[in-house]
Every structure is written in structure tokens, then in C-alpha cells.
From TrEMBL:
Region (Disordered): 351-376
Record-given protein name: 4-oxalomesaconate tautomerase
Membrane-spanning segments: none
Source species of the chain: Streptomyces silvae
Top class in the EC scheme: isomerase
Single GO molecular function: isomerase activity
Gene3D superfamilies in UniProt: Diaminopimelate Epimerase, Chain A, domain 1
Keywords annotated in UniProt: Isomerase
A Pfam match: PrpF
Family listed: Belongs to the PrpF family.
Domain of life: Bacteria
EC number: 5.3.2.8
Amino acid sequence: MTGGPAEVRCLLMRGGTSKGAYFLADDLPRDPAARDDLLLRIMGSPDPRQIDGLGGAHPLTSKVAVVSVPDDPDVDVEYLFLQVGVDTAEVSDRQNCGNLLAGVGPFAVERGLVAAGDGRTSVRIRMVNTGDLATASFPTPGGRVDYTGPARISGVPGTAAPVVIEFARGGSPLLPTGRARDVVAGTEVTCVDNGMPTVLIPAGALDVTGYESPRELEENTGLRERVERIRLEAGPLMGLGDVRGTTVPKLSLLAPPAQDGAVTTRTFIPHRCHTSIGVLGAAGVAAGLRVPGGVADGIARLPPDGDRLRIEHPSGFLDIEAVVGTGADGAPAALRTAVVRTARKIFDGAVFPRPEQTARPSEPSPQGAADDSPSR
């Protein structure tokens, strides 16, 4: 049986420090199960190399954005983020992605969903995964998206046009447990949700410095087991239920800044260590740094004035503006969050999904030989 479309219109784009396939909702099956099966075949999953699809063999390059036009006149487009498993046949909608969000506005203009202004265009976006709102602004000289520009973000070579993303205040409490500190799996943490459920953990509490490379942290089996115990116990406390089959909450290890930033981070997403940091993960860290009595006290170095915080990560830094005040209930609340990202169109065309009858994990080469080994 080889059902399903022979080809699907697709735009591959780098958004922030991630890369993903962008689709119009109308170009995908309406049934979620059929849609997810199609996306697995498009991305080449399950296979650790994703050799037969668009995926890049890493969670940061195995992402999908589905964009549609809502009925709500106060919103221009809706954005559903889907995380596609690499070596597992899983498609999850349990989280947002602030990096792919940087490409949603340009994609909406490219597909004619939003008319471009002459000079600059702002697109109001509802993030379907959580219901939160964001506005993305980017250059459109002559009514066309211009991806070139002077903005530089760590983790991406070269420069590109700045995409300014301002997040509307969300409806979820900043502190899901109602406390600035919790003891989870024997470790003091701060649980925050500023667009992404995130657990902040002092690196020293896990017997690491927080300056190790992602590979070193991933190879530390004892650390990964402790981090996963914290995640599984934090999930229900944060109102997320059983998180064994999900990618949230994320976990960020905190250490004093190594350069001129506010803090150094190492973020698990949730089992791989991020080579930089996600936008919404950084939003959670930034807000968490400003929560009085949180675990960042004595670790972070906050600037004496201004809203901007520099979050250091393995490949550089991310600058984010975060304002935390008091909500109507007297609890800490994120009043404003804004960040500058970049995006770039890589290709626009049709992708040909793997046929259904071949949708199975790849088998190892004989004697473990690599596919590109020279013949003898």
C-alpha cells in the first residue's frame, strides 16, 4: 500500500538556531494521525541518520511548522509546531519552538497569507500549541521579504535580517508550582513557564561546572539519569502530568557567567544537550533570573539597569529583554519578553515523501561499514 500524496509543497527554512520544514495546513492531511505519518516519511524518521528524508539527524533539525489563517481578525496566522522524532516514530505537539517562530512571518508573506508592507511587515501569530501570541517584525523592502542584513546570532554563521519577536503576556502562571523554589528529586530548582515549561537547576547541585561541552554532558550517564529523574518528577508538579513520552519540561543548568552575560546555561531538550539555547527556553531562563528567591540568586549577574539580559550558551549568547513584575494575584508575572532572531529561506518547492511500505528503521551496513566507505 502506497497511499498518500506523491509530493507536498514545502519551504525549508532556518529559523534562529533550528531548521525545519514549513507547510500550509491545507497542504497536509486534516486527520492528525495521517498528517503525522506523512511527516515521519517526509523527515525520514525513524532512523538515526534520517537518511531518506529532510531531517538532519538531530532534534534541532527535525522540526515542522504548520501555518494557517485563523477566523480571528486580531490574529494574522496560526502556527502549530511539531517536533518529529529522529530515531523514533513520534510527532509531538506538546511544546512550542521560538526558533522556528522566527520564520513564520516570512513564510506567511512568501505564501501570500499576509500582504507585505513596503519597508517592514509585522505579523501577529497565535502559537497553537499553547494559545500564546507573538508579533514578528521583519524587513520587506519593495513588498518582498529580505533575508539579508547585519544581525548576527550565536550558533549561526554569517549575518541576516533581524526578526524582532515580541511575546504577548501569556495566561499561564510564571511559577507553575506557585513557589520560587522547589525540591525535586532531592535537588533545589525553580520551575518557570514563560512560553516553555522549564526547570532551572544550579549546575553545582548536579556535580558539574556548567561550562562543559554538550557532548561531555551527554556522555555523563550519571548526570543524564539525574536530570531525567528531575524532569519526570517536575512534570506533575508543573501541571504537565506524566511527561515520560514528551519533550517538556526542558531543563537548564545555571552557572555564573563566563563572559559579560548574566548567566551561563546548558539546556537539555530533554535528553540531548542543546548546542545553544531555544528562544522560549531563554525566555524562561531570563524571567527565572528575575524571580526573587529563585535558584539563580547568587549565580546570575544581573545588569544594574535596563531590561536586556545576555544568556550565555555553548555556542555564544542570546540577548533577550525580560520584565518581571507582580500579577493581579500578587505572584511574580512576566510582563514583557522580546528577542531578536534571524531566519533564512533555504528552498521552496515540493518534497517527495518516502513510500509507506518502506517506513521502517534502517538496518546497519554489513560489518558496520559506512555507506560512503570506499570499495576495495
